[in-house]
Write a structure and sequence with these properties.
Layout (H helix, E strand, L loop, with lengths): L3 E6 L3 E7 L5 E8 L3 H12 L6 E6 L30 H7 L3 E5 H12 L6 E7 L3 E7 L2 E2 L33 H5 L2 H7 L12 H20 L3 E5 L5 H15 L8 H4 E2 L8 H12 L2
Parallel strand pairs: 1-4, 4-5, 6-9, 9-10
Antiparallel strand pairs: 1-2, 2-3, 6-7, 7-8
Helix pairs in contact: 1-2, 3-9, 6-7
The chain binds zinc ion.
The site of zinc ion has 7 residues, from helix 4.
């Protein structure tokens, strides 16, 4: 029986897991993200001697996932201290001697949602709305992106008329999608941490509008089967607001027959989409 490894590397924590042939978690650990060297050593310690056959690794980006590139396996231009230009794959490959599939956490999540739906969705878009905003796309079973991975969290959106005073928080673009609709924008607008703001607060109407604009754009660009909205900011309440805004912004230009099965929360519980995706991507390597 083969075992597969999953590494989900986020800005604040790393989740490592071991999965069986059925891609079920048999062992899991969570530890904080510190320096690249310390964190990667912790990853290696967890997997060492566990007899895994391959690893799927989904990391916060931007990162270099083109295997032919000299910086393959590197995090590239992140504002996260110490992680810019950090090589995160080669030590794992060297120490554990297994093939590693390296991609973004959102690509892993998109793939996990595709697996959770028994590969029945031809065009699946996964957004995470959390500390940042990112997205991954699985089209006809393949993760897309030729010269790199998608960066759909940083697209431009039209300003909401009731949000004209807010500058936006993206260090690169200020008022891109992430700059206007990620979790930290709540605290930046209200001075209260996002988790403490009631879900019926009007700030979520702004977020819903921006997220809906992104969903309309990707609908018009790709015509996918469905769009999944995950991440710590998403909730049933926010999803309902996004659907309303989506209807308004789309204005029946493209017909979506069933909005409830088009815009959805993740199928995998407890933020497990990336882990499932990583197991499957690891299995694909063999
Ligand atoms: Zn941006």
């Amino acid at each position: 029986m083969k075992l597969y490894g999953s590494i989900e590397g986020g800005g604040t924590k790393f989740v490592c897991a071991i999965g069986n042939e059925q891609l079920e978690v048999v062992e899991k650990t969570v530890f904080p993200t510190t320096t690249p060297e310390e964190t990667i050593n912790e990853v290696i310690r967890f997997f060492k001697g566990k007899n895994i056959s391959a690893i799927g690794m989904g990391m916060f980006g931007p990162l270099e996932n083109r295997e032919t590139h000299e910086k393959y396996g590197y995090i590239t231009s992140t504002p996260k201290k110490g992680w810019g230009d950090a090589d995160v794959v080669s030590a794992i490959k060297k120490e554990l001697q297994v093939p590693v599939y390296f991609t973004t956490d959102v690509n892993s999540s998109a793939y996990g949602e595709y697996i959770a739906r028994n590969k029945s969705v031809d065009g699946l878009v996964y957004y995470t709305i959390g500390t940042g905003i990112g997205a991954g796309i699985v089209l006809n079973g393949e993760i897309i992106g030729v010269t790199g991975h998608p960066e759909m969290g940083h697209v431009s959106v039209k300003r909401h008329p009731q949000d004209s005073e807010f500058a936006g928080v993206c260090p690169y673009h200020k008022d891109c999608l992430e700059g206007l609709a990620s979790g930290p924008t709540i605290e930046a607008r209200l001075g209260i941490r996002g988790e403490k703001v009631p879900l019926d607060h009007a700030v979520f109407d702004l977020l819903a509008n921006y997220i809906a604009q992104a969903c309309v754009q990707v609908t018009l660009t790709l015509r996918p089967t469905m769009i999944i909205l995950g991440g710590g900011v998403m909730s049933e309440k926010l999803l309902a607001k996004v659907k309303n805004e989506f209807k308004k912004v789309m204005n029946n230009y493209v017909e979506i027959t069933d909005l409830d099965s088009y815009l959805c929360l993740p199928a995998v519980a407890e933020n497990g989409s990336a882990t499932l995706g990583n197991f499957a991507l690891a299995k694909n390597l063999l």
